[in-house]
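Suppose you are handed a protein chain with no further information: no name, no annotation, nothing but its sequence. What can you learn? This example shows the usual starting point.
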Amino acid sequence: MNDSPKLLSEMNDRSREVFRRVVEGYLASGDPVGSRTLTRSLSEKVSAATVRNVMQDLEFLGLLDSPHISAGRVPTQLGLRLFVDGLLEVGTVADADREMMDATLGTNEPDVATLLDRVGSALSGITRGASLVLTPKHEAPIRHIEFVSLGAERALVVLVFADGHVENRVFTPPPGQTPSSMREAANFLNALAEGKTLSELRQTIGHDIAARRQQIDSLARDLVESGLALWENAGEQSERLIVRGQSHLIDGRPEVQDVERIRTLFDDLERKRDIARFLELTETGEGVRIFIGSENKLFSLSGSSLVVSPYMNADRKIIGAVGVIGPTRLNYGRIVPIVDYTAQLVGRILSERGKG
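A reasonable first move is to predict its three-dimensional structure. Written in structure tokens, the prediction is:
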């Protein structure tokens, strides 16, 4: 990835143009690009044999590959990376795409999760890829906490927030819990939680348990600490990945190996493994990031590309992310500005609502 400027500087104008046109042709059609096709579009009039020699040089550099004998060339992962870093021309968001996204976020939907679900559906529809939306954690002050037993090995913690939002989280409680210890744990937490968000409560609760060890029995203390572990583990309810448009990933990809890769991707998305890592992909700074093939830590086995951007709250703190995932031959020039615009729009809407 860091070698891109060096590689580009070592290529002459003819090599650079041949390379760019091979990549653009492949991204547009998904098919290998042949030398005869290129000779008709190059700015310099050269023979097909000359173009073939240039393509062989680019193949030697690891930028192009020949999927079949005597066929045209396609870019390698390294080639796509070079193109994205040094030659990609990013357009602006088309008026129709902008209007569709604006309409999605202009519905005055009171529930943030429902609103972001609509964003995901619109983003998938506009880009014809699968969309990923990581929703923000709920950070309103807590009004009330309650534990409810659901059986010997299951319990429910009910969190009521000052803005009226309610979350129910099922977890495995420590053994031996009684109705009395559950009430005591809830009373202990409610005394500490007033006016605090979950994040603020997490920061102080360990100290408070140690300081008030004599005031709370061991069963209740175990339950409080178990609840704390639950909150720290950023579960489905507090940090949720919304996935829409998976069916787009199989469009136009009949090859068996591609179908197998997509099935792997579906499995990853269904299990929603390592959701927090999706946000980590964006934490090195603002703006859109592009992950191609195996560069994409989260979905590396599926050989897909991910275009992702964080969105921020009014304090410029990253609270979530939006992205599009698809085959490596994504239309990067069109999708990058759409993802960027969507992330900025979501951040602005949520900041205005005072969420996150």
